[in-house]
Design goal:
By secondary structure, this protein is α/β, with parallel strands linked by helices. The chain contains ten helices and twelve strands. β11, α9 and β12 form a beta-alpha-beta unit. The chain binds NADPH dihydro-nicotinamide-adenine-dinucleotide phosphate and oxalic acid.
């Protein structure tokens, strides 16, 4: 039985060391030095080899080194292979921090004032307290709930929208398609933290943008596939939306010459809203392997039929 890691060398070194200390009985191998591939039961990677089932015929668990699993072709995996996404506190904390930065920037008009500065324009706009700014987070999972908790400490009027009903202290909770319109209508700053699935692809579209209050803003820290880019540009250029902060796009990197690069009211970050943190992720991975060996449910086990 062996574990294979395929990814950045720096993380591989940290994880190899953690495995040697805490699970020495499980050989840790680093791609492409996988040894006898028939011994490989566990693979941790962002991108699986194309011929995964042939490469590792006895694979039992595929661990994503990120929170998302949309980069895998789940339909090409043998049915018995379990897929596990990354659930670890370092990744969650960094995302909560990014969302706080983005929401505060939009709340305090940072894109607006940067534009004014570039034009040499000294013009004051009224200052609004956070308690009157309605922030709405789509997706109330590990990341959405942590972001909402952080936003609440900053005093924002918070709501969340989720597939199944959630209860979060101090957050107005909306659930399912039937309550999406009500959630959108009360949202001044919309934050997307959904997984990318057949149901959520292109969810940030004209219907949603038109239903947001005039002057609303958007933050997409989930996946580029959630956003219909032309719809966002149209809503910004019509003056209905105020600004957007985008951490993700499709494809990545954003192609040269794309309208987003130069748009005065779009801020881009290059998929850095959060990142798996090597030390805390090693602990999470080892804990999941222990759970698996003891027959306990693993944290972040993906429901392959739902795609997240
Ligand atoms: P989780 O699986 O913990 O949460 C996903 C949430 O979305 C769940 O609460 C789920 O509802 C909800 N959801 C799923 N489908 C729908 C739908 N159709 N309608 C409404 N709600 C839905 O994921 P995480 O919070 O850990 O991560 C979310 C995503 O963030 C990742 O999939 C990834 O794409 C992105 N990400 C981006 C990063 C970046 O740096 N930009 C870094 C890490 C992640 P339910 O409770 O009913 O299942
Ligand atoms: C992730 C990501 O899913 O980095 O972890 O986007």
């Amino acid at each position: 039985m062996a574990f294979v890691y395929k990814g950045a060398a720096r993380r591989g070194a940290v994880w190899s060391d953690a495995f040697a200390r805490r699970m020495p009985q499980l050989p840790f191998r680093t791609w492409p030095d996988v040894g006898d591939a028939r011994e490989v039961r566990f693979l941790a990677t962002w991108q699986a080899p194309e011929d995964l089932a042939q490469t590792f015929p006895n694979l039992e668990v595929l661990f994503s080194v990120g929170a998302g699993v949309d980069q895998f072709d789940l339909s090409a995996l043998p049915a018995e292979v379990r897929v596990v996404r990354m659930v670890e506190p370092g990744l969650v904390a960094c995302m909560a921090e990014y969302v706080a930065w983005a929401v505060l920037s939009l709340h305090r008009g940072a894109p607006l004032y940067l534009g004014q500065q570039r034009r040499g324009e000294w013009k004051q706009h009224s200052v609004q307290p956070a308690s009157t700014r309605r922030v709405g987070v789509m997706g109330m999972g590990q990341l959405g709930c942590a972001a909402l908790a952080q936003l609440r400490t900053l005093g924002f009027d918070c709501a969340g929208w989720n597939r199944s009903r959630r209860e979060e202290p101090g957050v107005r909770c909306y659930a399912g398609e039937a309550e999406l319109a009500e959630f959108i209508a009360r949202t001044d700053i919309l934050v997307c933290l959904l997984p990318l699935t057949g149901e959520t692809r292109a969810i940030l579209n004209t219907n949603v943008f038109d239903a947001l209050p005039a002057g609303a803003s958007v933050v997409n820290a989930a996946r580029g596939g959630h956003l219909v880019e032309a719809d966002l540009l149209a809503a910004l250029d019509a003056g209905h939306l105020c600004a957007a902060i985008l951490d993700v796009c499709e494809p990545e990197p954003l192609p040269r010459g794309h309208a987003f690069w130069e748009h005065p009211r779009i801020w881009l970050t290059p998929h850095v809203a959060s990142e798996t943190q090597d030390e805390t992720a090693a602990a999470a991975l080892l804990d999941n392997l222990r759970r698996y060996h003891e027959g306990l449910p693993m944290q972040g086990l993906v429901d392959r039929s739902r795609g997240y």
